[in-house]
């Protein structure tokens, strides 16, 4: 019958090597139970392939992430079956763990933001411990971040801005599926153009010293969809007539330098200089200069 073994996979670091531990409940039984633990991973075709098989009296089993039969980017499972000694033909129903994804990942895995100036948190974490050289107190993995705009017609026009182009994942004790983490912010670039919704991808690539486990690994990108918002406009034209952002109309025939527009939330303003352009027939002023900050 089913014994509710409830196997769970967690990462462990021992003697500078990364292991995965499959732990399960240990029901009391006389004679004591033995367990068959089968480790498997998802292949590129989506099928499970067995990579290790253990028979044990303990309520756990280990497998090493050695970059050969188990590496970063793999989804790993452990399946546990119990039997009594000398009755190996009487097996309990096999119980499988949830898949453990050994990776560096973004949370959230995708973002939908708007051109409204708001900052959005993006967390990068490692689900496995970071291995560093011996006696290295600042144990970390450095990630170089880059942005790819998927709209080929708008290359060179950044769609999003990051608070940092490089982050460090510092090793900490593993808890809640995270063994190292860093946070940055993502903001949509307000481009004052009605160019529709655009999609970008944020890419992270480990740089500098890397253990064998990390050497040939690149994390999955995070997809960012930026929703286009209507752009406000104001005008000052001819002698000069002024139309504000909210559609009010004014005339200003005076000569001098004036503050045309100023933001109350950021360092942005526009000054205009108006000068006589009517000659002797009429007193008319026109824009002759502009300065923007």
Automatic annotation (TrEMBL):
Pfam families registered for this protein in UniProt: Ig_VWDE (PF25776)
The name on file for this protein is VWDE protein
Q: Which GO terms describe its cellular component?
A: cell surface; extracellular region
Keywords tagged on the record: Disulfide bond, Signal
Q: Does the keyword Disulfide bond apply?
A: yes
A molecular function (GO) term? signaling receptor binding
Q: Which residues form the VWFD domain?
A: 232-293
What would be the name of the gene that encodes this protein?
A: Vwde_1
**Where do the TM regions start and end?**
none
- Key word Nuclease present in the record? no
């Amino acid at each position: 019958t089913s014994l509710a073994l409830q196997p769970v996979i967690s990462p462990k670091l021992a003697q500078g090597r990364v292991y995965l531990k499959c732990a399960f409940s240990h029901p009391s039984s006389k004679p004591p139970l033995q367990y068959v633990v089968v480790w498997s991973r998802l292949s590129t075709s989506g099928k499970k392939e067995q990579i290790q098989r253990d028979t044990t009296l303990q309520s756990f089993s280990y497998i090493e992430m050695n970059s050969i039969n188990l590496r970063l980017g793999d989804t790993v499972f452990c399946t546990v079956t119990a039997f009594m000694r000398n009755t190996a033909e009487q097996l309990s129903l096999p119980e499988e763990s949830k898949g453990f994804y050994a990776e560096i990942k973004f949370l959230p895995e995708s973002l939908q933001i708007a051109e409204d100036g708001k900052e959005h948190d993006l967390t990068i974490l490692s689900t496995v411990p970071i291995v560093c050289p011996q006696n290295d107190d600042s144990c970390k993995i450095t990630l170089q971040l880059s942005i790819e705009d998927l709209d080929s017609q708008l290359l060179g026009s950044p769609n999003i801005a990051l608070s940092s182009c490089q982050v460090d994942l510092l090793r900490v004790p593993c808890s809640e599926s995270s063994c190292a983490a860093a946070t940055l912010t993502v903001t949509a670039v307000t481009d004052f153009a009605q160019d529709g919704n655009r999609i970008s991808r944020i890419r992270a690539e480990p740089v500098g010293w890397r253990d064998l486990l990390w050497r040939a690994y690149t994390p999955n990108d995070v997809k960012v969809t930026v929703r286009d918002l209507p752009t406000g406009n104001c005008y000052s034209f001819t002698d000069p007539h002024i139309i504000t952002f909210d559609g009010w109309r004014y005339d200003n025939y005076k000569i001098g330098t004036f503050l045309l527009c100023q933001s109350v939330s950021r360092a942005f303003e526009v000054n205009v200089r108006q000068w006589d352009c009517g000659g002797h027939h009429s007193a008319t002023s026109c824009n002759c200069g502009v300065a923007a900050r």
